[in-house]
Amino acid sequence: MAKSSAPHKSLITLFVIITAIAVLLGFFLYKILYSQDVQAHKNVYELVAWSMVFVLLLIAISGTISVLTVTKQIRKLKDEASRFANGDLSHKIEMSGTDEVGQLAFAFNQMSDRLRASYQRIALEKQWDEILLENMGEGMIALDKKGQIGLINGNAVTMLNLKGKEVVGQLVYKAFALHDANGKKPLSAHDRPEMRVLHNAKPQSNVFEFWIEGQKPLMLHINASPVVIDGKTAGAIVILRDVTHEREVDRMKTEFISLASHQLRTPLSAIKWYTEMLLAGDAGKLKKEQQEFAQNIYDSSERMIELVSSLLNISRIESGRIIIDPRPTDLKQLVDGIVNDLKAKTEEKQQSLIISVHKELPKINLDARLIGQVFLNLLTNAIKYTPQGGEISVFVSRKDDQIVAQVSDNGYGIPKQEQGKVFQKFFRAENAVKVETDGTGLGLYLIKSIVESSGGKIWFESAEGKGTTFWFSIPMSGMKAKTGEVTLDELK
After folding, report:
1. Helices (H) and strands (E) in the chain — how many of each?
2. What does CATH list as the number for 138-242?
């Protein structure tokens, strides 16, 4: 490291002093030349002339040294700056002067320290990210905007039975194939959730089958989300979770419920029939107290049969065994028929019922049994949970490419803190249980399954003490036909 505080600055100062002396000598020479007695000052003139030569020589020498010194320092600064530019931050510029070059070197060293600290922090964060990525419980794949794999963690590699991370750089649909949830057909590139995300920038989430040769197919829940930068889709993040075991447990539970329901249905039906015979007097006239007991048995068996039927409906819809047989359906006729069936209940509670169906609505390809079940359940709930003299309305309209149905009431409403559980199995709101003790809590779960399996959506708004409005939508294109084993009518 240089010991001088400012080597070239000192030389410049010396250069200035010498120049000043030269100017003074020049002025002194001028006075002599224009004095009256030039001969008398001849010796002085020669002295001054030699002095001038000496001064000019000093100026030349000092200027050359100064230029060489500054040039050397600038060259050194340039070399170090080039090293910085190439990413080598391990050295510092050894130049401690307080002049401009020294200050520039100090600034470079500060910049180097900050960059070194930033690189260390980034390296540490990257290390943590890699540890986090590799220890995720799910598989993770990052895609670029073309669908090429840019990053994949170890869980995804293991889950998909891939060869290390050799798939990085490949198109995702070429790296591994997916089948639909039923395993009947492989998905095309266009239908894959990752590619759909890149195309429409909307999150996709569903369950698919993944086949590994010689092994049982895996059920993968795939959640794909877009990465949007400056309003443009720059890629996608794909999260994969193996739900094979969960699906197997659900299947076993569904089969158990179906089996148990079948076994329960026969004795319950027998109880109901024999009770009907007792009430009808087929075994002799009953006393008043006996009549009451028999009626209680009959009512209880009816509620149990309703519960069993609901369980069978749900188990068969979840297992995919329900037949979907869409046919051109007049929604006004369908709604009017259901309203007519419920007329006795609305009249009993003196409730007013408003029905409005879009007049120009064309016939839609629907399974009337399934959609009828949706309307029936929503209207039954509205009647049950609306007090005497209340108002219930049904509106069916068209919005873009969707049929939207609305069922509203001004009844008890659903408490805000419980609204997130409305579509769960066996859920019943606390205020509803106090008003109506009977109920299975399966109806809304059932109709949600029907609507979603039809390609539609269901949602609601509610305020406690003010009422509830349910909406559900179905595509104008209608429901897709599906082969199966049973229909809802067979479950009654």
Report:
1. 13, 12
2. 3.30.450.20
